[in-house]
Design brief:
With 153 residues, the protein is α+β, with helices and mostly antiparallel strands. 14% of the residues lie in helices and 29% in strands. The chain has 2 helices and 9 strands, in the order H-H-E-E-E-E-E-E-E-E-E.
Length: 153
Amino acid sequence: MLFCYFTLPSLFIAVLSFCYGALAGPCMPCQASNRRYTPWDRRITIPRGVYSPNITNPTGRTVWIGGTDVVVTWDHDDMPAKPANPKGTLLLGYLDDGSEDEHLDVEHPLAADFDLKKGFVTFKCPEVVEREQYIVVLVGNSGNRSPTFKIKN
């Protein structure tokens, strides 16, 4: 005689795992054909108005001076009328030779909560270690990285 023993908590976990796995399916980008439709799937098919604006300033020739007011600009002509997120955040980062890491300073944004439709944001340049490989990343509706530039103190 075959006997299966489940404690109440382990049975509960097994049932939840089965149900969650059956409904959730693979990760959202996969969208495998064996995935069951759920009400949450509608969110994936709604157009989101995501765009990735081209940063026009700073350029590869830009040199910022720490402590001065500087401006970052981006091309906003092709911005959707109703973007998913119209507020932006600007992060400073740097590149090291041979590394893919952008070393973004997410703890100290250069600017935050600004209107992406304006096409620019002004802020005070931080006084940092001088580098030739700084970048800014525009985050909001979509992230976009500037060319590398310098900051001097």
